[in-house]
Amino acid sequence: MPTIQIFDTLPELAQAVATQAIQLITQAILQQGHARLTLSTGASQFQFLALLTASKEVDWSRVELFHLDEYLGIDKEHPASFQRYIQERVLNTTGITNAHLLNANTWKSAAQAVSQSPIDLTIVGIGENGHLAFNDPPADFETEEPYLIVNLDERCRMQQVGEGWFASLNDVPRQAISMSIQQILKSKAILCIAPESRKAEAVKLCFDGSISPLAPASALRLHNNTTIFLDRQSASLLR
């Protein structure tokens, strides 16, 4: 079972995740000369990423970066594009040059690159429907493909509207590229950020219920080095 940590405020949560992430990245660089990092995107990551990318402890020139997912059918300049998110919130701040940005043309080469050696640290969130990356329920727990094309369910797409990334449901793409469940679980360490009351139902489903493709993030319970970071609101329904 993952370690679950619960915080009173989002700034406290973000600082705790950043502190642990910096420690894991710098440890990997010290041990092997480089670190392989996979980042999540979305509103829940804003404060954490600001703290992480401001760190002077990390030699960012030694970090190879991947990200979890990207919509199909939108341009990289679209406000909701995760390529744009990574460029603006991570690459521009850290100066990382070894980055594998996902799109319809690059995802297969990113899949080859991510398979070459273990990822040292993966940062994830949990969707309102329990999704992990863009693996909506019922998720594929079996495929060994590093990335795959997935269909987005309506609740997932409505979350994107609710967070302000799209004006309406019709604007949200119906498909995305997503890192697979099995690829996420191959990471040496996983940190999961899931604050806010709108995530409480999913948190309960994934950590109090059964490990099931119907609760995709429940797969994190199969990993032996995962920490879940919650606030009082997202943890409110846990036993």
Outline of the structure:
The chain has 239 residues and is of the alpha/beta class. The protein is 31% helix and 19% strand.
Q: Mean pLDDT, rounded to whole units?
A: 96
**Order of strands across the main sheet:** 1-10-9-6-2-3-5
Order of helices and strands: EHEHEEHEHEEHEHEHE
Question: Which CATH first-tier class would you pick?
Answer: Alpha Beta
The largest sheet, given as strand count, sense and whether it forms a barrel, is: 7 strands, parallel
Write structural notes for this entry.
The protein has 239 residues and is of the alpha/beta class. The chain has a single domain, classed as Rossmann fold (3-Layer(aba) Sandwich), CATH 3.40.50. The protein is 31% helix and 19% strand. It has 7 helices and 10 strands. Strands 1-10-9-6-2-3-5 form a 7-stranded parallel β-sheet. α2 links the parallel β2 (35-39) and β3. α1 packs across α2. The longest helix is centred in the first third of the chain and has 23 residues, at 10-32. The two termini are 14 Å apart. 45% of the residues are buried.
